[in-house]
Write a structure and sequence with these properties.
Helix content: 25-40%
CATH architecture of the largest domain: Roll
CATH class of the largest domain: Mainly Beta
CATH superfamily of the largest domain: Pleckstrin-homology domain (PH domain)/Phosphotyrosine-binding domain (PTB)
CATH topology of the largest domain: PH-domain like
Length: 445
């Protein structure tokens, strides 16, 4: 991306110094445009506007590994978050949820970044240091049925306490969930009692909410293993089920296989899955492998003009986000597919993390790692540790859930509508190239 930080930001002492250092280190054309700061006290409406701008800025930066890994840049963002919300550095209690709804209360500083909070949660649960990197914290919105709608993965430079409290709504929570996609890494986690319990609780929750697709017979087998408290065997069976370990997004719209088609998108196992129903047809599924995506981009439309209908509770029109990816339909045919969703950025981040994981595996590396602790940082071990509670037995399978069939044995046989060519003002640097893209033959489709 080719943007620059406005000079208005350099008017305020420390931020101005950081701005100068960042410009010197990366160049003015590398940094995304930073939300400008005003000299005077902000009104509540201006604070909320700046919070939204800062949130979008952080999500954009997340997709640039060079900036995301810079401690200078991360420090700059940490200060910006505190300054925007006018939050002093002090000790507070923060509630983090597990996938089964269990609450874990940790004592942190308001200035603690994501890794600090993740370490505190791990210490509270007695999760070993070498397994912390297998888990992440996510900002979610709790729905009426208890399921979580994922807003975003909390970034390394983010301040979780500030992020969740600035939203000023009880429906927003922070949740601990595994952060990898390849179920082969489950073996590392299941070696440890706490890791096993976390995976087990997450899997039971995903089945209960319909994220993992289960037949009646599979459901019976899973419940039998639960009754025997055979957690590892339960997970082994769950690993064979469709959509195990996937993240599921809220219903949205795609141009696959026709324009304006309502879909439910799930991400996992190196693919995006689209569940859909065409008029008069059975529930179907189409899968897009990440290794066949040449590139992708996230774009936003112009906000609705004044006087137009907007979402309830909002005083201005919503920005419409779209994720578009160029997909290899057959050996010599690439086609654009687009998904319109408020969670488009989160989908893009999922794609990038799947590609990163594939490249690590291809190079023979491992995702097992110790967290990088900041200079002078200390891990505050909890005085009292907390066990992961075992979830209740699975409920009876939902009789209203339909079986699903593949949309097509070959995506090349499906007619998809492409999106329009990029507009002249769309920079090619907004497109994320895919290092895991592979050329394939028709026989592989």
């Amino acid at each position: 991306m080719h943007f620059s930080i406005p000079e208005t930001e350099s008017r305020s002492g420390d931020s101005g110094g950081s701005n100068y250092v960042l410009r010197k280190e990366y160049g003015a054309n590398v940094l995304p445009a930073f939300p400008p700061k005003k000299l005077f006290t902000l009104t509540p409406a201006e604070v909320e506007q700046r919070r939204e701008q800062l949130e979008k800025y952080m999500q954009a930066v997340r997709q640039d590994p060079l900036l995301g890994g810079s401690e200078t840049f991360n420090s700059f963002l940490r200060r910006a978050q505190q300054e925007t919300q006018q939050v002093p550095t002090e000790e507070v209690s923060l509630e983090v949820l597990l996938s089964n709804g269990q609450k874990v209360l940790v004592t942190i500083l308001t200035s603690d970044q994501t890794e600090d909070v993740l370490e505190a949660v791990a210490a509270k649960l007695d999760l070993p240091d070498d397994l912390i990197g297998y888990f992440s914290l996510f900002l979610v919105r709790e729905q009426e049925d208890g399921a979580f709608s994922f807003v975003r993965k909390l970034q390394e430079f983010e301040l979780p306490y500030v992020s969740v409290t600035s939203l000023r709504s009880q429906e927003y929570k922070i949740v601990l969930r595994k952060s990898y996609w390849d179920s082969a890494y489950d073996d590392d986690v299941m070696e440890n009692r706490v890791g096993l319990n976390l995976l087990y609780a997450q899997t039971v929750s995903d089945i209960e909410h319909g994220w993992i697709l289960v037949t009646k017979e599979q459901h019976r087998q899973l419940k039998s293993l639960q009754e025997k408290v055979s957690k590892k065997e339960f997970l082994r069976l769950a690993q064979t089920l469709r959509h195990y370990g996937y993240l599921r997004f809220e219903p949205c719209v795609a141009d696959f296989p026709e324009k304006g088609c309502p879909v439910v998108v799930s991400a996992g196992n190196s693919e995006l899955s689209l569940q859909l129903r065409l008029p008069g047809q059975q529930l179907r599924e189409g899968s897009f492998r990440v290794t066949r995506m040449r590139c992708w981009r996230v774009t936003s439309s112009v906000p609705l003009p004044s006087g137009s209908t907007s979402s309830p509770g909002r005083g201005r029109g919503e920005v419409r986000l779209e994720l578009a990816f160029e997909y290899l339909m057959s050996k010599d045919r690439l086609q654009w597919v687009t998904i319109t969703s408020p969670q488009a950025i989160m989908m893009s981040i999922c794609l990038q993390s799947m590609v990163d994981e594939l490249m690590v595996k291809k190079s023979g590396g491992s995702i097992r790692k110790m967290l990088r602790r900041r200079a002078g940082g200390t891990l505050r071990r909890s005085d009292s540790q907390q066990a992961v509670k075992s979830p209740p037995l699975l409920d009876s399978p939902d009789a209203t859930r339909e079986s699903m069939v593949k949309l097509s044995s070959k995506l090349s046989a499906v007619s998809l509508r492409g999106i329009s060519s990029p507009s002249p003002d769309t920079s090619t640097s907004d497109v994320h190239g895919n290092y895991a893209f592979e050329g394939i033959g028709d026989e592989d489709l």
